[in-house]
Amino acid sequence: MHALRVTPKIVTAYPDNMLKYNQIKKIKEAWSSMPKHGKQVLAEALKLPPVERAELVENLLTSFEFQSRKRIDDLWAKEAEERIDAFDRGEMAAIPARDVFGEIEKNRR
User: Fold this and answer.
1) What is the pLDDT of residues 17-64, one digit of tens each?
2) How far is residue 8's CA from residue 6's CA, in Å, rounded to a whole number?
3) Sequence-ordered alpha helix ranges (H) in the chain
Protein backbone atom coordinates (compact mmCIF):
# COMPACT_ATOMS: atom_id res chain seq x y z
CA MET A 1 0.00 0.00 0.00
CA HIS A 2 1.31 3.46 -0.91
CA ALA A 3 1.12 6.42 1.46
CA LEU A 4 -1.00 9.29 0.19
CA ARG A 5 0.57 12.73 0.13
CA VAL A 6 -1.99 15.48 -0.26
CA THR A 7 -0.76 18.38 -2.38
CA PRO A 8 -2.41 21.63 -3.47
CA LYS A 9 -2.65 20.14 -6.95
CA ILE A 10 -4.77 17.28 -5.60
CA VAL A 11 -6.87 19.50 -3.35
CA THR A 12 -7.55 22.19 -5.98
CA ALA A 13 -8.28 19.70 -8.75
CA TYR A 14 -11.86 19.41 -7.53
CA PRO A 15 -13.85 22.57 -6.78
CA ASP A 16 -15.50 22.24 -3.36
CA ASN A 17 -19.06 22.72 -4.59
CA MET A 18 -18.79 20.12 -7.34
CA LEU A 19 -17.16 17.66 -4.95
CA LYS A 20 -19.89 18.16 -2.38
CA TYR A 21 -22.62 17.85 -5.02
CA ASN A 22 -21.16 14.66 -6.45
CA GLN A 23 -20.58 13.16 -3.01
CA ILE A 24 -24.15 13.90 -1.92
CA LYS A 25 -25.58 12.59 -5.20
CA LYS A 26 -23.60 9.34 -5.00
CA ILE A 27 -24.50 8.78 -1.35
CA LYS A 28 -28.21 9.35 -2.06
CA GLU A 29 -28.15 7.00 -5.05
CA ALA A 30 -26.29 4.31 -3.13
CA TRP A 31 -28.48 4.74 -0.06
CA SER A 32 -31.77 4.29 -1.94
CA SER A 33 -30.75 0.93 -3.40
CA MET A 34 -28.76 -0.41 -0.44
CA PRO A 35 -30.03 -3.28 1.72
CA LYS A 36 -30.81 -2.46 5.37
CA HIS A 37 -27.59 -4.03 6.70
CA GLY A 38 -25.54 -2.03 4.19
CA LYS A 39 -27.23 1.18 5.34
CA GLN A 40 -26.30 0.39 8.95
CA VAL A 41 -22.68 -0.28 8.00
CA LEU A 42 -22.53 2.94 5.95
CA ALA A 43 -24.07 4.98 8.78
CA GLU A 44 -21.42 3.67 11.19
CA ALA A 45 -18.62 4.23 8.67
CA LEU A 46 -19.66 7.85 8.15
CA LYS A 47 -19.21 8.47 11.88
CA LEU A 48 -15.50 7.60 11.65
CA PRO A 49 -12.87 10.35 11.56
CA PRO A 50 -11.64 11.20 8.03
CA VAL A 51 -8.39 9.26 8.24
CA GLU A 52 -10.16 6.12 9.45
CA ARG A 53 -12.78 6.48 6.67
CA ALA A 54 -9.98 6.78 4.11
CA GLU A 55 -8.32 3.64 5.49
CA LEU A 56 -11.66 1.81 5.37
CA VAL A 57 -12.19 2.84 1.75
CA GLU A 58 -8.67 1.69 0.83
CA ASN A 59 -9.25 -1.67 2.51
CA LEU A 60 -12.58 -2.14 0.77
CA LEU A 61 -11.16 -1.25 -2.63
CA THR A 62 -8.18 -3.56 -2.23
CA SER A 63 -10.58 -6.41 -1.42
CA PHE A 64 -11.61 -6.42 -5.10
CA GLU A 65 -9.46 -8.23 -7.60
CA PHE A 66 -9.07 -6.30 -10.84
CA GLN A 67 -6.98 -7.57 -13.73
CA SER A 68 -5.58 -4.09 -14.22
CA ARG A 69 -5.00 -3.44 -10.49
CA LYS A 70 -1.21 -3.91 -10.65
CA ARG A 71 -0.93 -1.54 -13.61
CA ILE A 72 -3.10 1.06 -11.88
CA ASP A 73 -1.12 0.72 -8.64
CA ASP A 74 2.13 1.11 -10.60
CA LEU A 75 0.84 4.24 -12.34
CA TRP A 76 -0.30 5.77 -9.04
CA ALA A 77 3.03 4.92 -7.43
CA LYS A 78 4.83 6.65 -10.31
CA GLU A 79 2.53 9.68 -10.02
CA ALA A 80 3.12 9.85 -6.27
CA GLU A 81 6.87 9.67 -6.74
CA GLU A 82 6.73 12.45 -9.34
CA ARG A 83 4.72 14.62 -6.97
CA ILE A 84 7.12 13.95 -4.11
CA ASP A 85 10.05 14.83 -6.38
CA ALA A 86 8.31 18.06 -7.44
CA PHE A 87 7.72 18.89 -3.77
CA ASP A 88 11.38 18.18 -2.95
CA ARG A 89 12.45 20.50 -5.80
CA GLY A 90 10.20 23.25 -4.39
CA GLU A 91 7.83 23.17 -7.37
CA MET A 92 4.77 22.52 -5.21
CA ALA A 93 3.80 23.10 -1.62
CA ALA A 94 2.14 20.61 0.69
CA ILE A 95 -0.87 21.03 2.90
CA PRO A 96 -0.74 19.12 6.20
CA ALA A 97 -3.19 16.20 6.16
CA ARG A 98 -4.77 17.39 9.42
CA ASP A 99 -5.66 20.70 7.70
CA VAL A 100 -7.13 18.94 4.66
CA PHE A 101 -9.16 16.49 6.72
CA GLY A 102 -10.18 19.27 9.12
CA GLU A 103 -11.54 21.24 6.17
CA ILE A 104 -13.41 18.16 4.93
CA GLU A 105 -14.95 17.66 8.36
CA LYS A 106 -15.93 21.33 8.59
CA ASN A 107 -17.64 21.14 5.19
CA ARG A 108 -19.45 17.91 6.11
CA ARG A 109 -21.46 19.64 8.79
Assistant:
1) 445 666 666 766 766 777 788 888 888 988 988 888 888 988 888 787
2) 7
3) 8-12, 16-33, 36-46, 50-62, 69-88, 97-108
